[in-house]
Design a protein that fits this description.
The complex is a heterodimer of chains A (380) and B (281). Chain A is an alpha+beta fold and 380 residues long. Helices cover 24% and strands 34% of the residues of chain A. The chains are: A alpha+beta (380), B mainly alpha (281). Bound molecules: adenosine-5'-diphosphate and magnesium ion.
């Protein structure tokens, strides 16, 4: 897994501050939705600030698209309220909500030229002819497709189609922009380019945007904040580094990045620290401010890069033997057996001249810092 | 524009039996028919049969009536059929089966039976007249049987499924997200229909119109029973000349003229269809 530095947003927050906020806020209050007896969404509360770029991240089938359809008005939630700029919008049909959508397959109108696709929403609003052509020209320039205005969607590449879709949605100056897995149809190199470009476009325009994705790297690199979803619920809503460093549930810690889960027991708590006994063997000392589940039986979640490897035992370490050693790009990845039935994944920076750990070597794992882990109740 | 190869060589061989069948039983008789239309009375080659057809105003009226009937029935089927296809498309899956059955019903009965049904409906004392009279819409029964109007009404019902089915097929091919995209851009239901749905179903409309027109102008049973010999169309004229009067070369010439009329309409529509399909992938 990457280190935290690599997954900071592509665009630094300071770049966004120069732009006047023309964005709109979105509030979801107690949204619940059922398809028949199946609960697709429950207890959804989300407050999105004007101009913010938020990702809904979760595995396939967790209800992301359903939530987007509710926000855009194509689906009426079983209960709950949606507010844009504080105004309830549940009663408004999709064509009056001012919510732009970029679909996974772009959904460009195949029988209209690029120009007509972009002009569609302006014409629907009854915009004067001169204004329409000015605005379309402006949008074409924004997405750098002026030379392709007369082409039909079938004559464009995937990336170009996506830019048309963005331009078409932005032309009507929507209050919100929803993007449902917009990059999944693009190949990997193009995907990265489009991620950067679309984030830049939306930030420049000051549009509040919600991106749906099941790709954690995409969410991490593009978003101001991420809402991690599982089985119709939002588990955590926070900045990419909060999500990565302080996962609030076991699901978040395992879904985002790689995590070692070790069953453990709290054996001592004093004013400064918690002493934890790892069930496989070994002890760890944690900072007091790591929140402790009420139960004594816990799972301790440690990211592979948050272990420090020592050759000598210390008072708070986990002993183990090196089983597998993989040089993966910038890091060395090891599998360390700490008990007959427990292995952990550990990554260490790869430094030229420093010999990697030898297979079969006995080593001692310490936490890189006394805060470099999360604790969850072990309910099994 | 690249012209895509329709079939790989091996796959084209699969069509061989059909090709042989069509050549033997369709192309060959057609050639014989065309050849016989150029026979003069004395047995030589001439355009005499065609001249005879076009010199007689009665024949020209039959040609015009046939064309007009085709146009009317096609328009009638389109106006009645499109809403049905649209309804079908938005019907929940569990009701689609019964709707399919209802749509196909006219095709599931023999054309003779259907036509006699219409005789009962359209007659002087028929359902149509008694219905209109009982509501006070007309005083005297109107003449429908043995008129052009009656033939048109019956044919519209009979060929309706062939308009509905291609339109259903083309509606099914439209990505539902296009309508959602239209709505999210502020387009209301009417705009979405006129700007998105209708243009994208044009290929289906064109196929439907082609089928209905070609089948209408070449129908024989319905025009002869409902028309009852009072109104004449090309197929009934061919029958009269070829089978009743045994004037085979003349009947062949009329057939050829009918064929050319259908072909002209087919080509005109296909050209339209080609244009409408160009932008749809
Ligand atoms: N129209 C529907 N009717 C019934 N169930 C649905 C419908 N749409 C979605 N679902 C179900 O709701 C759940 C969430 O779906 P969805 O929002 O599409 O997930 P995601 O976009 O996160 O992959 C899935 O279990 C899916 O099967
Ligand atoms: Mg989805």
């Amino acid at each position: 897994m990457e280190s935290v530095e690599q997954i900071s947003p592509l665009i630094a927050p300071s770049a966004t501050q120069a732009i006047p906020h023309v964005g709109h806020s979105l509030a979801l209050e107690q949204i619940m939705h059922r398809f028949g007896a199946m609960v697709a969404l429950q207890n959804i509360n989300l407050n999105i600030k004007p101009g913010e770029f938020v990702s809904l991240l979760g595995p396939s089938g967790c209800g992301k698209t359903t939530l987007l359809r509710i926000i855009s008005g194509f689906l009426t939630p079983t209960s709950g309220q949606i507010r844009i700029d504080g105004q309830p919008v549940s009663a408004l049909p999709p064509n009056q909500r001012g919510v732009g959508i970029v679909f996974q397959n772009y959904a460009l109108f195949p029988h209209m030229s690029v120009w007509d696709n972009i002009a569609y929403g302006l014409r629907a609003k009854g915009t004067a002819r001169g204004r329409v052509s000015n605005k379309v020209g402006e949008m074409l320039e924004l997405v750098q497709l002026g030379h392709l205005a007369k082409r039909y969607p079938s004559e464009l590449s995937g990336g170009q189609q996506q830019r048309v879709a963005i331009a078409r949605a932005l032309a009507v100056e929507p209050k919100l922009m929803l993007l449902d897995e917009p990059f999944s149809a693009l190949d990997k190199n193009l995907r990265l380019d489009m991620q950067i470009e679309i984030r830049r476009l939306l930030t420049e325009q000051g549009v509040t945007a919600i991106l749906v994705t099941h790709d954690q790297e995409e969410a991490m690199s593009m978003s101001d904040r991420i809402a991690v979803m599982s089985q119709g619920e939002i588990h955590q809503f926070g900045s990419p580094s909060q999500i990565y460093d302080q996962p609030s549930t076991l699901f978040v810690s395992t879904f985002v990045g790689t995590c070692n889960l070790l069953p453990a027991q709290v054996i001592e708590q004093d004013s400064a620290s918690h002493l934890i006994q790892v069930l496989g063997g070994g002890r760890l000392l944690l900072a007091k401010d790591i929140s402790l589940p009420s139960d004594r039986h816990i799972l301790i979640a440690v990211r592979p890069e948050n272990f420090r490897v020592q050759s000598e035992p210390s008072s708070h370490c986990i002993p183990g033997t090196v089983e597998i050693c993989l040089p993966l790009g910038a890091v060395m990845t090891y599998e360390i057996r700490i008990a007959p039935d427990t292995k952990v994944k550990v990554t260490q920076p790869r430094i030229p001249g420093v010999a990697p750990l030898a297979l079969g070597e006995t080593i001692y794992l310490e936490l890189a810092s006394s805060r470099a882990c999360s604790l969850f109740p072990a309910n099994r | 524009m690249k012209i895509p190869k329709l079939f790989a060589p091996r796959e084209s061989q699969l069509a061989l039996p059909l090709a042989i069948f069509l050549h033997l039983f369709y192309v060959a008789p057609l050639i014989v028919l065309l050849a016989s239309s150029f026979q003069s009375r004395e047995g030589g080659v001439s355009l005499g049969q065609y001249l005879q057809f076009f010199q007689d105003a009665v024949n020209l009226k039959v040609l015009a009536d046939t064309f007009w009937l085709g146009v009317q029935v096609t328009i009638g089927c389109l106006i009645l059929g499109y809403p049905v296809a649209y309804l079908y498309h938005y019907t929940p899956a569990k009701w689609k089966g019964i709707l399919t059955f209802l749509i196909l019903l006219p095709l599931l009965t023999s054309s003779v039976v259907r036509t006699f049904g219409w005789v009962v409906i359209l007659g002087r004392q028929g359902l149509m007249n008694s219905f209109l009279q009982s509501f006070g819409l007309i005083e005297e029964p109107i003449r429908l049987l043995f008129t052009h109007k009656g033939v048109m009404i019956a044919m519209t019902q009979i060929w309706l499924p062939l308009m509905i089915l291609p339109i259903i097929a083309s509606l099914a091919q439209i990505d539902p997200r296009l309508a959602a995209a239209s709505a999210s851009l502020g387009g209301g239901a009417w705009r979405t229909f006129w700007q998105i749905t209708l243009p994208l179903t044009l290929p289906g409309i064109i196929s439907g119109c082609l089928l209905v027109f070609a089948l209408t102008v070449s129908s024989f049973v319905t025009p002869s029973i409902i028309g009852g010999g009072q109104v004449m169309y090309m197929p009934t004229l061919i029958y009269q000349q070829g089978v009743v009067l045994l004037n085979r070369p003349f009947a062949a010439a009329i057939s050829a003229i009918l064929l050319v009329m259908v072909l002209i309409v087919v080509f005109a529509f296909s050209a339209l269809g080609q244009r409408s399909r160009e932008y749809v992938r």
